[in-house]
Amino acid sequence: MIEAAKIKELKGIGEKTEKLFQKVGIDTVGDLIRYYPRGYDVYEEAVPISELEAGKVMTVTGAIYGRVLVGGSPRMQVTTLHVKDITGTLKVIWFRMPFLRNTLAGGGIITLRGRIAERRDGIVMEHPEIFYPSEKYEEKRGALQPIYTLTAGLTNNAVIKAVRQALDNLDLSAETLSPEIRLKYHLAEYNYALRGIHFPEDKEVFYHARNRLVFEEFLEFILTLRKLKDGSEKLKNEYVMGIHPEVEAFIEKLPFALTGAQKKVWEEITADMASDTVMSRLVQGDVGSGKTIVAVLALLNAALNGYQGAMMAPTEVLARQHYESVTKYFEDYGLPVKTVLLTGSMTAKEKRRAYDRIECGLAKVIIGTHALIQNAVNYDNLALVITDEQHRFGVRQRETFAEKGMMPHVLVMSATPIPRTLAIILYGDLNISVIDELPSNRLPIKNCVVDTTYRQTAYSFMRQQIAKGRQCYIICPMVEDSEHLEVENVTDYAAALKEELGAGIVVDHLHGKMKQKEKDAVMDRFAEKESHVLVSTTVIEVGIDVPNATVMMIENAERFGLAQLHQLRGRVGRGKHQSYCIFMSGSKAKETRERLDILNKTNDGFKIASEDLRLRGPGDLFGIRQSGLMNFKIADVYQDAKILKQASEAADWLLETNNEWLKKQFPRYEEVSNIMI
Ligand code: ADP
Ligand code: MG
After folding, report:
1. How many Å is the maximal CA-CA distance in the chain?
2. 223-264, pLDDT tens digit by residue?
3. For residue 51, which of 126, 465, 478, 538 sits 20 to 30 Å off, Cα-Cα?
4. How do strand 549-554 and strand 122-131 relate by DSSP bridges?
5. Ligand 1 within 6 A of 291 CB?
6. At what angle do helices 260-274 and 291-304 cross, to 10 degrees?
7. % residues pLDDT > 90 (the chain)
8. Residue 41 burial class via C-beta count within 10 angstroms: exposed 0-12, middle 13-18, buried 19 and up
9. What is the pLDDT of residues 401-457, one digit of tens each?
10. Three-class DSSP labels, 656-672
11. pLDDT per residue as tens digits for the range 555-608
């Protein structure tokens, strides 16, 4: 069997199952073996009954105590058992397994592993896996069971079986890394790494396997970047432009003074645009640091110099927001710069109109989504391309955008908080500017981490803020693997909240499955202060700017990565009013609290990410919570910073020595260049 073989060739995979696999992006056997687990289940040591915690999967060993009871309704029979150790007694229940009454009738010592739930009458272990007699558990102890991301109809077991079969039938003896590199960095063999990542016998094997795969992923990415850089370095600047006097005047007239950091970055940009070579620059700045205005200045300067400039945003909501604020700026200051919006959800007629204006050069500033890089769009004299929230785009998209012009200036904006040393590697083809200062009118956001008993207090607090004219966001938890449930969740929550808050307070909601027009309408109402509370999924996370909103409440905050929570929090504290962020946690576990408390202590995105990493320790097995900032398949920029540096060093060496391996094994660009950084 070869990696390119369709998975249907595996035993037990028919047309129906094939469709399910395709749904999660697995088409070939090669895709399958690179479908890495998202975490592992560990058969960990049993704990005393007194130390059980609700919400966790845990193991206990104890004596069967009293009789096994079968109750419930005929359709849903519930089997109940009590288990006792020296620290206490635990109630255990199973659904639809009445035969257990006989199986467990013999009494004695039993080991059970299952989820602990909190009930009105105390904690209960629900539907656990049974190890009876207890010794059976010892055989499993320490083993890691892979957990895969699934879709409805596809079971974890089905994936495990398919992966096992694929690994057994493929010839994996060929090595994909250069031998010198593999030896130098002590990297496991390809074969070993693939087996080890799916079915590690223990943690050591897992770490060793993962290391190698992370290294390889970084190496391919860096080599791709170096190739890009080769092409774009020192391109002659065809659009030499100085600062137009009207831009200077515009800066003077802004309602706020630019911060020192904004000024510095603006100087760097103007120096680039006036230099001999074309600009390729990354502007990095934390949420709310004021990146947009810098982009607007660059666009305005290009336009006044007679060129076109375009800015691409990752979502329609954000693109529209940029369009509206740019047109408003230009109107307010009487700047005769024609600006058009171009997004996917516009009607064919609207698009046609936009295309025409872009093509004939009437439109000088063009703002939109991915629609800006479609084939149908032809620019007249595109001299500047800007991507906002670059971490939501792939490297390839950035390239395609630049190819829309004749070697235009490239500016990318990102809120990804990473230290400079890593940024230099990851954005190898760009120069880096940092906005490391927040506007001075900002009051620091007040944070609190609370449990669900605080919900009513939070609602009354929101009522007070709304009475003062402010607005609030509430983020509903994501529902894993089910967009359908997520929609239901947001809709129900908003309806219940409407009841709760009573007449006079307008509650709106937003989720990813809504039509674009509906989303726009919801955002418009919120921006116009026609609604007071916006209940949303994380679609709100990127870039949205409503400075009048002062409260952000995040339900089930424990389920989010800290980096994402920080982005969400960035939706408030954007204006002159005191803002508040309420992290509501559904878990009382100490670690959860400690993790969320990091957000309490600092507003610095990078500190947050590194603290998060410190707390988790390297290589978190249990639902590998990646920083979620870049979509590497297995690598994580924070967690694997050391490997990233090694891979960069290795890439340099391979290129310098023009290694044989480079010619044979590389490129596998396609996949890599879709990584979003
Ligand atoms: P981000 O860096 O997250 O993209 P934005 O550019 O959206 O941030 O800016 C956030 C808010 O701060 C906007 O409302 C913007 O008008 C405002 N702002 C930007 N620069 C300044 C400044 N120098 N002083 C005061 N407010 C500013
Ligand atoms: Mg922004």
Report:
1. 91
2. 887 776 666 567 888 999 999 999 999 999 999 999 999 999
3. 478
4. unpaired
5. yes
6. 30
7. 50
8. middle
9. 888 888 899 999 988 767 778 888 888 778 899 998 888 888 888 999 988 889 999
10. HCCCHHHHHHCCCHHHH
11. 988 877 787 788 889 889 888 899 999 999 877 777 788 888 888 887 777 778
**What totals of helices (H) and strands (E) does the chain contain, helices first?**
24, 20
Q: How far apart are CA 438 and CA 288, in angstroms?
A: 7
Distance 574 CA to ligand 1 centre (A): 7
Ligand nearest the Cα of residue 293 is: 1
pTM for the complete prediction? 0.74
Q: How confident is the model at residue 542 (pLDDT cuts 50, 70, 90)?
A: low
Contact 593, 449 (CB under 8 A): yes
Give the contacts of 593 (CB within 8 A, at least 6 positions apart): 449, 585
Residue whose CA is at the smallest distance from ligand 1 atom 12: 290
Burial class of residue 669 (count of CB atoms within 10 Å of its CB; 0-12, 13-18, 19+): middle
278 Cβ neighbours under 8 A, 6+ residues apart = 232, 235, 236, 237, 238, 239, 272, 407, 408, 409, 410
- Residue from 153, 182, 119 nearest 23 by CA: 153
With the most atoms of ligand 1 within 8 angstroms of its CB, the residue from 252, 253, 254, 256 to mutate is 256
Q: Which two tokens stand for residue 6?
A: 């369709």
CA distances to 116, 447, 533 from 573, rounded to whole Å, are: 38, 11, 16
Measured in residues, the chain has a length of 677
Encoded tokens for 650? 């290795």
**pLDDT score recorded for residue 401:** 87
Read off the tokens for 586: 């559904």
Residue type, 323: Y
